[in-house]
Amino acid sequence: EVATIKSDDLLKALTSKATVLEKLKAKLGIGSTTLSAFVALIDGEMDEEDADLLQVDEEDELDEEFEKIKMAKMKSRKLKVLEEMALAEQTLVEAKAQLKKAEDHVLKWQAKVDRSLCERLRAFQSPPPMAGIVMVMVMVLMGRPEFAAGIGGAGSTYTPGSRERTREPSSQNIETCSKTFVCVSGVNAEGKVDRASWKSIQQIMNDSQRFVETLHHLNWKEGLSSEILRGVQSFFVTSSEGNLGVTDDLGSAAAGASASNYIGSPSGRSTATPSGSVSRKIQGITIAAAKYSSEDAAVLVEYAIALVEYTRLYNPYRKAMMYLDELQREKEENEQRELMEANMEAEKTEEPEPEPEPELTEADLPGLEADVLRLQEEYDEAVVHKHNLANEVKSCSERLKAATDLLHRYSEYKPLHRKIPNT
């Protein structure tokens, strides 16, 4: 291996020195005519290359200008991304703080939904109209499809390790149920729950512990599903400011239902009665009307409103979080691209430029010829030495193989020799 490396190095040195010598001879006109013609051809090509290089230099100037504009845009975009990230982080912090308040509000009212509350509501044989409507709204909140078309069933309630959305409602259901709750199954045009529907609700509430757990384990951490959200919102009166369960008329308990419509029941809870001979149609759920009807129903109303408000605030939080993630990815891509470009520039600067050939004269000719002869002799000796070493290695390999074969055959005959008895 050492001999091979030495011979290769000598060959490179000899080739380089011989090339310089022949170029000098061609320059002095003492070389072969073929070499002189070849040198003249090379000089002509070099002149053409110089002309091309002048044009390339002009193109390089345009490329440099383009590159400057490109880098300026990238730098501007980088600064813009950093600014947008700062704003997005601030927006996310504010959205998260608002969402935390809404979450605490949900948990506050969730804690008040217990077995005793459910059992008191279930005990109504004929519930007050508003309490009945509230319970139908709760059924929709739980995702009971029998109380609202287009609302999914079991998939809307808590399932460990999964979050299944309800199926998409039909356009007809959305049109008929998006503005008023009177289209909900079991509720008549006057806003009262029919007896059969109330019996179904009581049946669902029979296992009060399970009923409470279902309400506590609704999928609300990432917001209510769009179908359930629309269904629940359709039950409520909405003020001009967009607040659920609040009317602009502070003197009324509900739109179309005043406090005079409700009288106390023997059990101490309120019941609704028509004012005069004409029954007034209830237009939607309000917190005030729910309290007049039943304090327990009002708790469920507050819980539902808290869930709707949490869902309303979760969407901006989710969008802010996704936008910040997108900006972070763009920032990382920019940094990676800059790193790659920096590495490419470093590789360009590390490449050694070829050393310019020295200007040689006729006085240098004898020295070059002597160097070429010396290198030629050294190269010949190195090649012969390498060849001798190769032959010696080959001979040693053959002798080693023969010895190995002999030992192998001896190891095969040795057991047979031991079995032959002495004579």
Q: Which descriptors apply to this entry?
A:
423 residues; mainly alpha; two-stranded antiparallel ribbon; 2 strands
List the helices and strands and how they pair.
Layout: H1 2-28, H2 33-112, H3 115-122, H4 129-141, H5 171-177, H6 195-204, H7 208-216, H8 226-233, E1 262-264, E2 270-272, H9 287-293, H10 295-350, H11 365-419
Antiparallel strand pairs: 1-2
Keywords: Coiled coil
Biased composition (Acidic residues): 352-362
Biased composition (Basic and acidic residues): 332-351
Structural features, described:
With 423 residues, the protein is an all-alpha fold. It has a domain at 93-154 and 181-250 and 282-325. It is built from eleven helices and two strands, in the order ααααααααββααα. It has a two-stranded antiparallel ribbon with strand order 1-2. The chain is elongated, with a radius of gyration of 47 Å.
